[in-house]
Amino acid sequence: MSVYPYLVAAWLLGCGLYGIVTSRNYIHLTICLTVVQASTYVLLLSVGYVNGAQAPIYAGISERSVVVDPIVQALTLTDVVVEATVVALLLALILQANKRYGTTDPDRMTRMHDE
Amino acid sequence: MRGGHSRARLATAAVGLVLVVGGFAWAVTDLPAFGHYHHRYGAYLAQHSLPQRGATNSINVITFDYRGFDTLGEEFILFVAVVGVVVLLRRLRGEEDESDEDINESQPLASESLRWLGVASAAPLAVIGAYVVTHGQLTPGGGFQGGVILMAAVTIVFVGGEFMIMLRLRARAQFLEMGEALGAAGLAVLGFGGLIASGVFFENFIPHGHRGSLFSGGFLTIANLAVGIEVAGAILMVLAELLDQRLLTRPA
Predict the structure, then answer these.
(1) B4 touches chain A (CB under 8 A)
(2) Is A50 helix (H, G, I), strand (E, B) or coil?
């Protein structure tokens, strides 16, 4: 039981990487990258979890309550923001590549050096 | 040719996948057992955020106060990424812009009820967004989360079928840019405020207020506001830029 949540993260990582490798479309590939990043959220949040603890927000709970680790939660917030910026930049790059080569298929873009 | 090519690629990838995912799974067995984590730093910050800062949301205190310097870097990542998107999507030579009237006529109109639903959702979303931003130091939420909801308040009108709103936003991009820049600068100014007031960068120099009240947590309220404005402006700018591209690249 003690490692199952971590294995979920491993599974998500594998799914995302498989999607990236077999992708036929750069937008699909970007979404697969977000799946890879989702595995880091699962990993971070499950590392900080404490059995029977409260959320680290002292609104309505005693000041002495046992709470889960707030650091990993703040880290996850950073993670989400970074993911959003990466996706925005990737989508912009895909748009420009599509304008130039008329395709979003990574395989069909290999002839770009012939120009 | 393509079949063989992708088969070789899959075989290569399979080796890598097994190694990475297998190694990952092996590595996590050495982590603290799920539900038994204890780290003194995290426990210390969680216990002291309320007594020291008067703010109940210890994650928000960590993000903007104890680790405010890190968040400043994170905010600049967002800022630079948006600048990158704008630069990448700048108008290139030979790209014609369509006038607004053309777009208006050729736009497939969404159903009337859908458009009304989009418009009607905007105000409640804006209120929720403002609530999440301003109560970041008390309850779950904060500048980053609330900023995204504020952005959604505008976007849902567009998704509902009122396409013109994004064009209007695009025409007033300087306000979005200003909001984004002001938000990013706001957090930096708070950091320097601590430096001036007490000699420590990002020292919380504003009185911490009454525990659990709206203005508790010292400068957390301002930090949340600044970041909320920046995030909403930044994402709206990216969306407006992407929409602009759609209009540019649409076949005539």
Answers:
(1) no
(2) strand
What pTM value is reported for the model? 0.85
Q: Which residue has the tokens 């680290």?
A: A56
Mutate to test the interface with A, among B59, B95, B180, B214 (most CBs of A within 10 A): B59
Confirm if B248 and B95 have CB atoms less than 8 A apart.
yes
Taking contacts as CB-CB distances below 8 angstroms, the residues of chain A near B9 are 21
Check residue A40 and give its pLDDT. Answer: 94
Show the tokens assigned to B37.
């984590």
B-chain residues near A77 (CB < 8 A): 59, 63, 142, 144
Instruction: Give the dihedral of Cα atoms B100, B102, B103, B104; nearest 10 deg.
Output: 90
Amino acid at B109: L
**CB–CB of B33 and A3 under 8 A?**
yes
Within an 8 Å CB–CB cutoff, is residue A73 touching chain B? Answer: yes
The pLDDT confidence band at residue A63, using thresholds 50, 70 and 90, is confident
Q: Do A95 and B249 touch (CB under 8 A)?
A: yes
Cα nearest neighbour of A108 on chain B? B2
Shortest CB distance from B85 goes to which of A50, A88, A99?
A88
* CA distances from residue B30 to B23, B27, B110 in whole angstroms, order as listed: 12, 6, 54
ipTM score above 0.95: no
How do residues B119-175 score in pLDDT, each as one tens digit? 899 999 999 999 999 999 898 989 999 999 999 998 898 888 777 777 777 778 888
